[in-house]
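Entry for phenylalanine complex. Fields follow.
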Amino acid sequence: MAQEAVLGHLKRNQEISDSGVFSQEKGIDHEELVNAIKSLNAFGLVIASDIKREKWLLSEEAQSYVKYGSAEVLLFEAVPAEGTAKAKLQEIVKSKLPVDLDDKTKSLIYDKGWAQAMKNKWIGLEDSQVSRKVEHVEDKVKDLLIQIQNGEAVGAKDIDTLKRRKLISLQIWKGYSLKKGPNYTATRKKAATDLVRDHLQRDEWKDVEFKEYNFLAKGQPTEGGCLHPLYKAGLPNFFVKQQIQMIFLQMGFEEMPTNNYVESSFWNFDALFQPQQHPARDSHDTFFLKGDWNLILDLYLGGYGYDWKREEANKNLLRTHTTAVSTRMLYALAQGPFTPKRYYSIDRVFRNEAVDRTHLAEFHQIEGLICDRGLSLGHLRGVLEDFFSRIGMSKLKFKPAYNPYTEPSMEIFSYHEGLKKWVEIGNSGMFRPEMLRPMGLPEDVQVIAWGLSLERPTMILYGIDNIRDLFGHKVRSSLNLSQTHAHTKSVFVFISPSGDF
Ligand code: PHE
């Protein structure tokens, strides 16, 4: 609309001398007109030249002077002909001011009016008595302000006074004057953004006006970087990282640093009393890496009752379980005066497995341990019942098992109502003294610990039968676990002590 008005006007006239005046005449918003001008200018339909105008703006105070009179005149007029006590003046002034002014404004008018009327010598103060010193005053300030508001010229001295009284301030107004441009046409063809098939088929491409590329345009914000479904906490009963994390925190556990995927064989196996001939240390099960850490402790050298080889312990690998992190943490703990600890971690581990529907070469492990004096298998069972009931698995069974580093060891089973069978959900045990004593932990200190994968219970819970739907490069980041297989969900309902989930 604005574009047509400009082009139409230029058809009959040489120029538009002032976009401000033009916008008023045509009833077009000036900002809208400016946008139209910029576009027409860019395509050479018009030539626009900047106009800058200085404009004086009235402050709020000045606007009230225009409406009611200046403060000094209001004050002068409030002083009775016979004079009054100074103490009473403020009240008199306020009582004479328009009722629609609030008390703060009234006080301000009184203060300003008093100062200005005294300065003008309109009033005088003797022995606490205020009296008029002139018979009649004219509201020059109000008149000046009205002139300014109407855009009339006002002398530099007056402008200066009003500016100093902060009644007016300068505003720069920007507009344009316009002439026809080299590409002027009275009616503008809509510029095409792209060359399309029609342009070619109808031979229009020769005449089409193309929009220029705007290389400075910001473009659409990219949508990306969402949390992995396995990491998200959702409502009402997601079995995922953040929720497990919350359960550990509620149970008073601290998180262990798990940011080292590369580990030495020493911390992953040797420090855990796992012999160097153990089948898990075969490259068929573990990913070994080149180079070594040399981070092993002399403490362990030769202490295993077999031909222990330092080179074997030095070998780097991708950690096969987060118990490697637990070992480091226990060793660090043993270096200071003993304090009981509860530690947890949830992070990746790597195993050289044949990948199938239920196995991946990398997955997540949840690990928890408590290190304290006088712990027993009873404590371990109690903690496991507490922990698993919080993720909705309250029917548990324990089966004796074997781990090189725990004695006794227990596999943990949970009854799955949907599948009508017991399913293995984790592994646990009490760390062996052969592991703890060489680290320097006191003799009466025990460590109870357990580990489980993050993926397995999540798969059971949501009826996902292919682990690759949950982890790995094929996972849809929009995967909404709460929509999968509702029948299995009712089995494990999150029950938290705070009722938060
Ligand atoms: N590290 C064991 C695993 O990888 C789990 C475990 C942790 C067992 C702590 C006992 C104690 O399966």
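NOTE: The longest helix spans residues 103-119.
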